[in-house]
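Support case: user asked for a sample of complex input and structure output to validate their parser. Sending the pair below.
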Amino acid sequence: MSQNTATLSSAPPFDEAAANPVAGIDQTKGDFQYDVTYEFDAGTGLNENTVRYISSVKKEAPWILEFRLNALKKFQSMPMPTHWATKDLENINFDKIRYYLSQGQKPKRTWDEVPDDIKQTFERLGIPEQERKFLAGVEAQFDSEAAYSNIKDLVAKQGVIFANSTEALREHPEIFRKFFGKVIPTGDNKFSALNSAVFSGGSFIYVPKGVKVAQPLQAYFRINAENFGQFERTLIIADEGAELTYMEGCTAPKFSTSTLHSAVVELVALKGAKIQYITVQNWANNVFNLVTKRGVAHEEAEIKWIDCNIGSRLTMKYPGVVLKGRKARGEVISIALANDGQHQDTGAKMIHAADETTSNIVAKSISVGQGRSTYRGIVHIPKHLKGCKNNTECDALLINTNSRTDTYPAITVRGDANSVQHEASVSKVNEEMIFYMQQRGLTEGQAMSLAVNGFINDLARQFPMEYSVELKRLIDLEMEGSVG
Amino acid sequence: MSSLVIRDLHVAIGEKKIVKGFSLTIKSGEVHAIMGPNGTGKSTLAKAIAGHPDYTITGGDVLLDGQSILEQEADERARAGLFLAFQYPSEIPGVSIANFLRAAVQARMAEGEEIDATAYYKRLYSKMDLLKIDRKFTSRSVNDGFSGGEKKRCEILQMAMLEPKFALMDETDSGLDIDALRIVADGVNTMRGPNLGVLMITHYQRLLDYIVPDYVHVMWDGRIVKSGDKSLALELEAKGYDWVKKELALATA
């Protein structure tokens, strides 16, 4: 493995995907779909009527409708952010997207109430029934509504609210309204505005003061309708001294036309609270995954994003933490794998806004074949602050010479009472390493996946057991397909 | 009883011909040493037999137990019982020796068959005890930051675990001090027996003091030009490769 410490670009930007969205996409793998009869369907295209329709189906309070309509205006007035990342965003046809689908209004409460075809889908996703024993609550989102939602007595008894966005805003506005749309303002970017206009599904969680939720809360979801944009909305509030781990994982079937996933996730960690948010996602190769994730950490609070991006046509995601209170801590651990025809544009944002705040970013990217990965980060420490620390590490692994990786770390540190550390490396899985492993009896695909798993091993260890196993399985699948 | 037959083998890298008509038969239980000056094609021979994609076989054949292996991928050859102890083993960061070997052992099992983890570790530790390797060793990443001696010991441990029919040992002595050399040689000698055939490639006679070969061959310009028993190695040491060169010149004159 050769190493150097510079940005490395070894191929011109690919535009094959722009010319033909399905060029080079292997559609044989993981391609499964079940017929679902949608009871509510907002049709294709987006205008004021779509938004009003969604809001009325959800029987929302007037303030939410107003929030949505205001967001729609912002969305329509904001330009596409194509000037800095990629021209591929221009290929999203907003008129062909379905903005709302639902199987019904009330999330299913028990496993028995979940329709059989949906259970079948869950089975294909490998969500074992026994997991329910381990998980405190499962909020499995199927398309835009939660098809199955089960909060174990234990968690409810602790006073934890775990609901989908519709239910939470209807039944607990006194808790959620205060923070909703505050961490990520509607107009933060064009896609947060879009989400704010048409959001449905997602998880709203409130953990009361001092409550430590022992088991991770978990949500699985996937897209199962062609041309259907998924706009889930998540808001997690950990009150003073509370602790919570939330995990989301998603897989999606393959489709021939583009699918848009644009989520907004807001976290609020009040004084001394801890939130850990874990994502392992494996989107189909035609999904635009444009997600805004941000948290606010108050005094001595801690927010940690563990973010793993596999698949999708284009992912743009930069989880951030605003370190608002003294001694707040923020961390982003990120793994991105860009295979042929994929572009992972990921990174992290750390906004230091109080003394003695610390942040840590460790980002690892893997580029395979024509895959392209980009690290884009912001670390901001203003001059008047004292005792702030940031550590940023970006490591890229290239598999074959056509891969491309770029690093754009923007670190603004003013004043001399703060410290930052930045390291970047680019390594290659070379032919000799693969031959060495093959000589021990591993196939080329097994050798590649072992090399990749080795590269991310120190990060994967931070994942809960079942997620690191799933991650390994996903990487094995990706590498199998990448051997020519 | 297994056999590895190398028959009139020709190997090229790109346009360059390196191995030019190499023939040798190795049987289980035999240890053959190939000696020769640098650049004569020793390492190329070993890598080509193991199936390195950069090396083109332009003529001849390699047969393992009567079956040609030239159409097989490197991993198929490995699973068929061929092991190459590398002169420069690759580093695999983040993959522990224990996990790497486990994957290699698993790769040799029938589809649907799962490795018995307890039995695997028991066997791994017994091999390590045999080779006098510290238990902590296997939790380190494969060859990552290893000293020359550690890398070679790691190769020997893998060989012991994978129990090949034939081992090609490419300059196993290079970069080793005398203590490391002795440890590695002890390991090979421990494994020596009726089920293992060894082709040992070396530049120096020194290794042959520790691993005494049954046959010694001198390689020159891509083929074997002289064969004998272990005394040939000593003669070579005393007279140098120029002696072979002169003999060769006389023979072809």
